[in-house]
Amino acid sequence: MSNDTIELDGIALDALASVTRRNILKKIKCKPMTVSELERDLSINKSAIFKHLLVLQEADLIVRRTNDNMFVYYELTTKGKDITEPQGTIKKIIFLLATSGFVFILGLFVIFKSVETTILPKYWVTPPVNSPILIVGSVLVIFAALFLILELRMWGK
Predict the structure, then answer these.
(1) Is residue 26 predicted with pLDDT exceeding 50?
(2) 65: part of which helix (H) or strand (E)?
(3) Element of type H or E holding 63
(4) Which end is more exposed in the chain, N or C (fewer Cβ atoms within 10 Å of the end residue's Cβ)?
(5) pTM above the 0.70 mark?
(6) What pLDDT, in 10s, does the model give residues 60-86?
């Protein structure tokens, strides 16, 4: 998804108000299609489909492309993909949360190993304050915690 939010103006809302136009978007989501393919799949005449396609183009939900054979195909714009594929956003959020969680746990593990090897040796020697492993672990934990907080704030908006 290109943006965190989808902005719908009056033109886009009007375009989405029609069941036929929403069905066209669903068909085009799978693959770019010609007017003839849409006519066949939706059982609507070409002139009606063409009018619906013009409305969707004005709303910047689809774009008209011509291939090498001079066939005219219609495909989703970024805005159209954002509307028809919200699962992509959820997958990105899950991936980012999982990554942050992994880094957080890795940081805790590094800190634990640093403490285990410096604080709990046989003779209970006090660890040096600037232990590089402890610093790396702390940075990982802080980075992951901040990243998690930012993700959760963005997700809540």
Answers:
(1) yes
(2) strand 62-66
(3) strand 62-66
(4) C
(5) no
(6) 899 999 888 889 999 998 888 878 876
